[in-house]
Amino acid sequence: MHMGKKYADSVKLYDRSKVYDPSEAIDTMLKTAKAKFDETVEIHIKLGVDSRHADQQVRGAIVLPNGTGKKIRVLVFAKGDKAKEAEAAGADYVGAEDMVQKIQAENFFDFEVVIATPDMMGVVGRLGKILGPRGLMPNPKAGTVTMNVTQAIADSKAGRIEYRLDKTNIIHCPLGKASFGQQKIQENFDTLMTAILKAKPAAAKGQYIRSCVIATTMGPGVKVNPVKLTLDTAK
Q: Which CATH number does the domain housing residue 228 bear?
């Protein structure tokens, strides 16, 4: 496999066989950010659960204390007073059946978050096969099916992220931008890990966090000690 010069230089900055303590892993990972643009910091956490079973699902949403560094565009499905409230709260797009038509007919996806009032889920349900695979389907557990659209919009734009298992029992989430620096990334990291540890299903057996890797968009993955994660959060 061919590696670019910057990637090859980044690999030399750390020990690929080593499992780092969280703070050291973050510091090492940030040193590998060599791209000309402000790279996103990503985390990938493999859990010791089986996502095929309903009682072992791990899913939720949190607001990262320092945000994600990304401008978030929000689409709200609402009618009447709730539609007006969404517009006043800063939603980028507000609609109902008209927005369903726009997405279906025009392949419109100029948004990163979809919020809906509960009464609109029958309408939004028509988009399940389109929004679902993209991780955009509103969900009560993620706080995106709610009557409090003002708070939901504010949280989304402030840096709320949803964490959920993929088919291989791995959670993939952004932790911010490389320009955030050590402290802000650490704060976002701690907030996310605390939430995931608290979300441990009662049915989960054995080691809960099997592995954890952090990386910048173009950089190599740095391994984080999963045992250290559990111990640090339990303090």
A: 3.30.190.20
